[in-house]
Design brief:
It is built from seven helices and seven strands; from the N terminus they run ααααααβββαββββ. By secondary structure, the protein is α+β, with helices and mostly antiparallel strands. It folds into three domains: 78 residues, no CATH class; 80 residues, Nucleotidyltransferase, domain 5; 49 residues, no CATH class. Helix 5 packs across helix 6. The longest helix has 16 residues.
Length: 244
């Protein structure tokens, strides 16, 4: 076929398809009666024992009086197209129409799924995409594209969609199979995590800390997670330095 279509030599065509040149020159041997009987026995064996392969077939064939080795049984097994049927693993039931408990979307606007995607423009700057999908209809009400989308942007997007088509019952942030839907409650602002305000205006200071230890205290989302300063400070009585 390659020789007739592309006009290449037999050597080049055999090298491309990975076959020996003898396969194109020598005619295939005609099977004798003994081989035809062995092929018929293998087909009958595959019907009786569909879960057994050619190795067990070789053992049973020798027990029944056939003088064959494993290589011949394997060659004839493959030539007949026999194989052990693949036992497909059962996948977990997911998707539309599958009972998933109380959070199963039974109609549109019941469960919305949110997920972020990232891309880059030609100048290397990052693009952030917020995708909102209705779990029942698989419809995408909105795709927000911006350089940066924070919690306020997510809330604004959800409130805009809710004003157009109504608020859902649950919202789920798609972080994997373990993510659970969150009730909508009174609005989108109650479902989206807000940024902590304890470190908004303090920049290394906790509320109530003095200016002398402002550079030595690290604040987190709560005041109890602050780390005390390890710098020495002067005692007002003795003038000696002590550490805390």
């Amino acid at each position: 076929m390659l020789i007739d279509r592309f006009g290449v030599s037999e050597r080049h065509a055999c090298r491309v398809v990975g076959q020996h040149r003898a396969t194109q020159r020598n005619a295939p041997p005609i099977p004798n009666d003994d081989e035809m009987a062995l092929r018929a026995w293998l087909r009958a064996f595959a019907l009786v024992r569909p879960r057994w392969g050619w190795r067990r077939a070789a053992v049973i064939a020798r027990q029944e009086g056939w003088r064959v080795n494993n290589k011949r049984i394997q060659r004839l097994w493959r030539s007949e197209g026999l194989k052990v049927p693949y036992r497909k693993r059962k996948k977990p039931l997911r998707g539309k129409g599958v009972v998933m408990g109380a959070m199963c979307p039974i109609r549109p606007n019941v469960l919305w799924a949110l997920d972020f995607q990232f891309d880059q423009t030609s100048n290397g700057r990052t693009l952030k995409l917020l995708n909102v999908i209705d779990e029942f209809t698989r419809e995408c009400p909105a795709i927000e594209v911006a350089r940066n989308i924070d919690a306020d942007g997510v809330v604004a997007c959800l409130e805009r969609i809710a004003a157009q088509r109504g608020a859902p019952m649950y919202v789920r942030f798609d972080n994997g199979p373990s993510s659970l839907p969150t009730p909508w409650r009174t609005g989108a602002a109650s479902t989206v995590p807000q940024r902590s305000s304890s470190i908004r205006d303090h920049r290394g200071r906790t509320p109530g800390s003095s200016r002398s230890t402002a550079g030595c205290v690290t604040s987190s989302s709560t005041v109890t997670a602050s780390i005390p300063c390890s710098k020495p400070r002067c005692s007002s009585r003795t003038g000696e330095s002590t550490t805390t």
